[in-house]
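Researcher: Next entry in the queue.
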Amino acid sequence: MKTIVESPDLVVVTKYTRGVVGPSLGTAGTVRDGGRIRTVTPPGCWGPMITPVFAGGHEVSWPVAVDGARVGDAIAISIDKVEVLSRATSSGTMTTNQAAFGSDPFVDHKCPGCGTLWPETRLGGTGPDAVRCVKCGAECSPFKFGEGYTIAFDDDRVVGLTVDERVAHAFALDARKVAALPEGSEQHSILVYEPHTIPGTLARLRSFIGNIGTIPSKDMPDSHNAGDFGSFLLGASHKFAMTEQELKEHRTDGHLDCDSVRAGAILVVPVKVDGGGIYIGDSHANEGDGELALHTTDITAEVEVRVDVLKGVHLEGPVLLPVAEDLPWIARPFTTEEVARGRKLGERHGVQVHADVAPVQFIGSGPTINDAADNAIARAATLLGISQAEVRNRCTISGNVEIARLPGVVQLTMLAPLDLLDRAGLGELARRQYGL
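Model: Structure for this entry, 436 residues:
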């Protein structure tokens, strides 16, 4: 099977990692500055989580280099398409099987029967005990559901509905097809577990990408490329262990689980290895802010993005320009009427109005939500060249902080002065995104 289709203008990727991202992978190809990357992303989270040969919680596309991108630059990823291909998925809260891993259930997997590390497995029927070691036959998945559900999607992928035991079992019998797993995917579909709580629950769908960005400058599990999950690597007993300084230096915070990273948004990401290494995965059908169950509706999705190199734009972490309707009300661009009212007020008090501002979101991550907010504030202050106190004040009266994921990823929204954004190299991008 040919896994890569490459041209200067478009790289199509149908090869996926086994849960690791980093420099050792090399790249699937090189796309020109301004070119496009297309891939079909297998589900993240639950499928890879129950597939012990994976060393991370996702199955993402093989990285693609962007011509001209160098360490210290940034890459603007314009998301053109996130199309749901799965007919259904399963998700829920999780429990772990301590006998099936070492220090981290997402990473250092082992067979409880024969002790094989990262064992190859097969499916023996359906249900939560279906994942079996090829070598000894023991059940060896590190995860089970605390409470799980199966949700089916309508033909237009507008709504989803949780199903009962009968339907969940039917999906489990044809799991790979129902999940629309791409040919190159190696995961076991989580539909095999056939969970079936809360049947009849209706949910709105709006697809987005949970893990997207540039590769870190040191190999790490793909699900741990952020400050919260990445903290599990500190002092770990496996080969991906890092110090706190190494995690800060190497991570790129690709694992966002931010529901605003959807078609129409622009995600600006740091380049920590030459070429950047754009990878995409962990798409979801929907999610409320916070991802309170720690997992949501993992799907197979067709994704297409455009990539543009921003020379000399040095970022400590991702910056998001979401679709305008996803912005908090208080941080949306000012209307003509609002600016006129502001100028009238300024004339009354002899104060000049600085209305040349644009919304921008700084992604922060850390072991807790407070740590993530502090991280986002520090990143904003560094990029814009202002004090953290000024960031806090601006974001209090004309901004916002939203939880992307518990335990620790946030979006810090600011109406930032355009002259500061110009100096940081993001002004023109913000003007185009919001028609300023």
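Model: The radius of gyration is 22 Å.
Researcher: Noted, moving on.
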